[in-house]
Amino acid sequence: MSLELTIIIAVVGLLVSVLSIISFVSSNKQQSKKDGTMGGEMINDIRYIKNTQQDIIVSQKEISNKLDNNNERVTRLEEQVKVHESRLDKLEK
Known about the structure:
- It contains 1 helix and no strands.
- The chain is an all-alpha fold.
- Helix content is 98%, strand content 0%.
C-alpha cells in the first residue's frame, strides 16, 4: 500500500510539474505575441511621426520660398516707390 501511495504521489507530482511547464510556456508565448504586437504598433507610430515631420519640413520650405519671393517683390516695389517719389519731388519743384 505504501508503494502504491508513493507511486500515486509521484505521478501526481509529475503531472503538476508538466502542467506547470505547459502553463508557463503558454503564458510566455502569449506575452511574446503581445510584446510583438505592441512593438509593431510602436514602429508604425514612429513611421507616422517621421512621415508627418517630413511633410511639415516640406511645407515649411514652401512657405519659406513664398516669403522669399514676397520679400523680393516688396523690395522691388519699395525701389519703384522711391523712384516715383523722386519724380514727384522734381515735378513739385
